[in-house]
Amino acid sequence: MRLSLVTALTLLLLWTLVAQVNHALAELRVYLFVGSLFVIFAALKLPLRSGLGASLLSGLLCDANSPVDFGTHTLLFAAAHTVVFHLRDRLPRDDTIARLIVALLTNLALFLVFSFIQIARSPAPAAAWPRLIADLVCSQIFLALIAPWVFALQHRALVLTGTTRELTP
Amino acid sequence: MPFRRFATHHPFATLGFVVVAWLFVPVGLKSFTRASFFELTAPVTVAADYARGLQEYWSLRLHSNHELIVAGRDLARINASYEFAVQQNAELQAGLERLESLLRLPTYNNYRLEHARVARRDFSGWWQRIVLRKGKNFGLTSGSPVVFSGGVVGRVTEVYATTAVVELISSPNVRLAGIVEGANHVMSYQGGINPTFGPPMGIVELVPLDTFASASSPKRLVTSGFGGVFPPGLTIGSVTKVELSTDGLFKTGEVKLDERLGSLTEVTVLVPLTPE
What is the ipTM of this complex? Predict the structure, then answer.
């Protein structure tokens, strides 16, 4: 429970920062999506229940602040968490570069799935793709820049709150 | 061996349990959870906006007195022309009311103007919306039209304790009835195409065949006042392109919206005085 809450608090901070960046970028019509950062650390480092709890909480947070069917982010994050958790024993999960690559691939998958879900609402779906691809490229660059800091922040938060003992080896 | 196999698939069993559990959660509980999580983040959004305001204040403090005097003079000139416009508006309003009573016409909705600061902008390729720093505490109601100096901003979709969410006219979920200025044929407007680094765009359908517009001679699209919450005559955008639709009965076109929609800091909510 403590693991989930501490991780969710760091994800709340991440959500706040990304929301502020998107606020500033609205003038340029650029939007950053970093859904995988809400999932990767929890999926790679935390036990299943605590990690899934943190991912679900961050999914609810994103759902509450988006005009989508409630649960869209939550279930997508849960699915991404499960897949990454299933694969984590085959990955060098303590290596930052490996984590970053997993984060980039997961973000790509989440973005595409989310786009296919949302694109049906657009009056001209084909015309929307150039914008979505531009957003995806910007999001991946932004994610590559901030992911190491986010992972370090989440690890440091767990160390400060003394919950690292509960982490899986 | 069976246990090991189960352990391998355990995460997927948990995911399946979560999905099934989610399907059975009552809608009321989902709505409550959504509102609770939004209210949880609302103070963060508002605090960030206050911090931005403070930053702006201190950057303005760096301006010289000379710049302040020039700005004050310009503002006085604008105020003088606005005062004249207010007088004209009052005369026209009185004339309108007189005609309405003589001809026994139904009156247009009356609105209270509530100015609000934009706390957060959220402009993705999927949706475009803003969060205002006023909510139920200032009597805002869901469905109220939101305007700015350039015309229509959008419609209030969600109202919370101290914040409200506005869906912009560039969002694909927003549909309006509009007319080309000077004409009387109602057409359907829908937002949705928002290119990177370009102005927001929308599309217009059911355009009559005798309507012509191009980038060099655009037509102003305004609200019709029919079948919606928006009063008539508010600018939606400029029709910059029309072409024959696939059925050949009408035309469809592109509407260029105001570029300032992406940099709004203050908007006005038209709160109906007689809510439905």
Answer: 0.89
